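Subject: for your reference before the review

Hello V.,

The reviewers asked for a structural picture of the protein, and I figured it would be easier to keep everything in one thread rather than splitting it across files. Below is the amino acid sequence we used in the manuscript, unchanged from the supplementary table.
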Amino acid sequence: MRNRSRSAASCEPFREALHELRQQRRGLAQRSSVAVCLTGQLRLFMLSLPGLVKHLLAPRLAAEARVDFFYVGPADASFAHGRRWLQQVPGLRLCSVYSPVLRWASRTGAPLYEELPSPNRSSSYTAPRNRTVAAAVARHHRTPSAFGLLSPAELSLPMSPPSSLPSLRLGVRSAGCSEANARSRLVQAWQARRCLQLIERHEASQSARRRMPWKYGAILRVRADALPTRKVELPPLSSLLAQPAFTPLDDCPARGEGRLANHDFALLGRRDLMA
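And here is what came back from the structure prediction:
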C-alpha cells in the first residue's frame, strides 16, 4: 500500500502538467499554432514534461498559441519505459523512432547522413487482437519507407524490435570540434530534420483538410530529457513572427553569429527559419 501511495505521489507533477495542457487547449481559439519538437531519449520524461510546461510553455507561449507536439527518438530502453507517458500528452501528433544502433562513416565523399535498412528489417507486422481500428488502418497503409512512424494511438501497441527499424549512417566531419562532439551534433541535427519532416507531413494533411495552405507560426525545439528548473521569459509570439531571428534560450547563439551552440537543449524560432 505504501508503494502505491509513493507511485501516485511521484506521478502528481506529470498529472498537473497534463491538466494544464488540456485547460490551455480548451481555452479560446488562438490565432497562431506552435509545433513543439521533442527529440532524443525519454529519460525521466515524467519530470521533464512538467518542467517544459511550467517554465517554457505556461508563462506566455501556450497562452498565445495552440501547442502541438512531435517526437523523434531511438527505440531503446528509455522509449520502452517512457512511451506510456508520451502517449498521454494532449496535442501529440506524430512520432518517429529508429534503431539505437548507429553506423558511422568517415570516408571521403560519404553522405552527411542517410537512413539504412537494418539487416532484419521487415515491413510486415503482427498486431494484437485488441488493436484499435485507427491503428489497424494506419498499419495497413504503411509503406516500408514510412516504417518507424507512429501515431499517438499506436504508442501503446508492442513495438517491433530495434533490429526491424531503420538505422542511421552518419558521416563524421569534425571541423573545429572533437569527433565525439561532432557525432552528438550530427545525431541531434538529424533528429531535428526528421522532426521537421513530421511537422511538414501534418501541415500537408491540415492544408488538404482546410483546402488552403496552412503552417505553424513557430517551432520550439526541445530535448525530451531537458529539465528546465526556472522560468524562461520568452518574447511575445507576435514579435517573433515579425522578426527574422531566432530566440536564444540558455545562451544559444544568435542566428547571425555564424557558430553552433555548445548544446541543443531548447531553441524557439519562426517556422521558416527553423527549417
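For the response letter, the relevant points are probably these. The radius of gyration is 19 Å. The helical segments are 2-25, 45-64, 77-86, 133-140, 179-210, 237-242, 271-274.

Happy to draft the paragraph if you're swamped.

O.
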